[in-house]
Amino acid sequence: MLELLAQTGLNAVYAASYISLVAVGLVLIFGVMGVVNFAHGELFMAGAYAIVALYADMNVPFFIAVAVGMAFVGCLGLLMEWALFRPLKDNPLGGLVASIGFLMILQSLAVMGFGVRMEHIPPVTQEVVRFTDKVGLPVARLYVIVAAIVFLSALWYFLKRTRFGWALRASAQDPEAAALQGISITQTARIAMFIGAALAGVAGALTAPLVSVNPHMGHSVIVTAFIVIIVGGVGSLEGAILASIAYAFVHTFVTTFWDGVLADIVGLSLMLIVLIVKPTGLFGSADRA
Amino acid sequence: MRNLSILLVGLAALIALPHALSFSQQEILVFLVINVLLVTSYRLLTLTGEWSLGHVVIMGVGAYASALYTKELGIYVPVSMILGAVTAALLAVLLSFPLFRMKGFYFLIGSFAAGEIIRLIWKRFREPFGGVRGISGIDPMPDFSIGIYQFDFFEPVSYYYFAGAIVIASLWVLWRIEKSPVGLTFHAVHWQDKLAQASGVNLRAYRTLAFAIASGFAGLAGALQGHYVGTVNPNSFDIEVMVFVLTWAIVGGTQTFYGPILGCIVLTVLNEIVLREMGLEQARPLIYGAIMILSILFLPNGLESLVQKATRRKPVAKPEEKAAT
């Protein structure tokens, strides 16, 4: 029993890692641009397909493929910012609708390019870090955990310690005042969009060998990310990370001890309760919503 | 007199329409008619300023409820359709307690969560909802005759007339509601909520009322669909369908009564008839997505704004429209 608990805990840490990568990107985009990016799950999917194309089909070394995938998805983010979110800046519902349109385009491009079938990706490594006989952490999952820690720390450093980061946070707080201080709102939006998309991309790329890669995989990812950012408080990066961890533990444990659908119901109910009791989220200040 | 003749010609065209179409197009026509009711009921909700992502699930509630009433309780189909609509409306009243604590973006996400929970409950519990595979073998509408026309519900044409009559009656009711003092209050709740509240309007009650009426008609649309298709399952009411409804409303525009209907008809014709005939089956979501993006970029007020431009005679805009733009 203890071993099962420990193993489930490890699985939850892995889930928390990739969920927080996706959710933090979503929060960053929402904070700086005030737009809910419904296509964020599809950016995750695009990252996974980068691995299918480069690593599985073209035999590029895994970590190079991950880096290329990350950059590629970041560029998709730049494209969205340029083509959709910037022209629709004054239309609150517009960005949301446009991102739904973009989601459908990405999805059907994946279907046309790779087919609807689940992709088979050869495992990167079969090694497992053993703690006891029955408790172990596959190294492929360890990569995801390490990536989450590294990238989120880097993001924290960037936001709190660099001039660009200050500019980014300033324009998230008050775009007009930031613009008056000589900060280019377009430039900060571009940076936020690139980082946010790249984080989703790297999460998708690193988890690709561990999950079933298919064109519709983004759906559950975006639902999870929404739950997490609502519970954490829209616009709060720390809240998103803490909520990712909390959600991952609840969801993984309910899935292990009961079943997956029930875990989804529990997760959504938690979000609904948070919305009813404290709509600004557990850690949020409702600045932009 | 002129209006009456336009109405009669329109009605004649609607009656003649299915006879110019192929069998599969007739089936699409039935769905189109049902979707027109769905999207029009959605507009009633948007009148109060709330955009829900749970509307399609509410439609599903009507379908499931009506299917279960006929199957488990043996209720006569037309009666159970109405009961299905009532069930959807009552559920909306129940949901309004948690949901109307939220506004705007939070309502959007909250309604999505509530809808997903309902959908997952259908999926999780085989009794009585049938789990993932849903309920099949739902009683069809019993055939009947009205003297000049024999309704045979194996024929899509018959179901088109039947559903069409119900939808037109429902649209008329929705239209009357919107033009009544209650409907004007819905507008006030959206555009002048502080003023309305100061004048003694109970905002919460009116938002709940709009939600309940919209949900009732969505439930009716669901019941119509359920008894036509013969099966209901959780996946036929998922978020993708909701995205379509949202697109119809936005591409059509929601400032006028006909806007969402226009959006629904134009996009359905484009989607089902043009793209399917052209053999672009796989690229359909791509083109649909592109249409969404292009229309929000270049036609932010929807197709209705084109119609308004074409038909406007007097340059004086109604104050209500001014507030909207």
Annotation keywords:
heterodimer; A: 289 residues; mainly alpha; two-stranded antiparallel ribbon; B: 325 residues; two-stranded antiparallel sheet; 2 strands; disordered C terminus
Q: Care to describe what's here?
A:
The complex is a heterodimer of chains A (289) and B (325). Chain A has a domain at 18-217. Chain A is globular, with a radius of gyration of 19 Å. Chain A contains 11 helices and 2 strands. In chain A, helix 2 packs across helix 9 and helix 9 packs parallel to helix 11 (260-277). With 289 residues, chain A is mainly α. Chain A starts with a helix and ends in a 12-residue tail after the last helix. With 325 residues, chain B is mainly alpha-helical. Chain B contains 15 helices and 2 strands. Chain B has helices at 2-16, 23-47, 55-73, 77-99, 104-124, 126-129, 156-179, 181-191, 193-198, 203-229, 239-252, 258-277, 284-298, 303-311, 319-324; strands spanning 144-145, 150-151. In chain B, strands 1-2 form a two-stranded antiparallel ribbon. In chain B, a hairpin with a 4-residue loop joins strand 1 and strand 2. Chain B is globular and about 55 Å long. The A-B interface holds A 36, 83-84, 87-88, 91, 93-94, 97-98, 100-105, 107-109, 111-112, 219, 223, 226-227, 230, 234, 259, 261-262, 264-265, 268-269, 271-272, 275-276, 279, 289 and B 51, 98, 101-102, 104-106, 109-110, 112-114, 116-117, 120-121, 123-124, 239, 243, 246-247, 250, 282-286, 288-293, 296-297, 300.
Spatial order of the strands forming the largest sheet of chain B: 1-2
Fraction in beta strands of chain B: under 5%
What is the H-and-E element order of chain B? HHHHHHEEHHHHHHHHH
Instruction: Give the N-to-C terminal Cα separation of chain B.
Output: 34 Å
Low-confidence stretches of chain A: none
- Helical content of chain A stands at over 70%
Overall pLDDT confidence of chain A: 85
Query: What structural category characterises the helix and strand content of chain B?
Result: mainly alpha
The largest sheet of chain A has its strands arranged as: 1-2
Number of helices of chain B: 15
